[in-house]
Specification:
The protein is mainly α and 78 residues long. The chain is built from six helices and no strands. Helix 2 packs across helix 3.
Length: 78
């Protein structure tokens, strides 16, 4: 199975949580444009923003941004 890119994971998690890009941006404290660039791979978020994204979606930073596998307990979190 092909590994998803961080931008694809972000888009999928946002949609699974029923959020618009604007709502996700507000929740993590960035501009709409910055968030849109994260989802199109035109910008990589700073580490503090990665932590806020992780908290918003309930998934580890390593899973979202570094391709780490989820543990069985983490797979059901959202």
């Amino acid at each position: 199975m092909e590994q998803l890119k961080p931008c694809e994971i972000l888009r999928r998690l946002r949609r699974e949580n029923g959020l618009t890009q604007h709502e996700a941006a507000v929740a993590i404290g960035v501009s709409d444009g910055a968030y849109a660039m994260y989802e199109t791979a035109n910008r990589v978020p700073r580490d503090d923003v990665k932590a806020r994204i992780s908290k918003l979606f309930g998934k580890p930073v390593g899973y979202i941004f570094f391709g780490e596998e989820l543990t069985p307990g983490e797979q059901n979190e959202t």
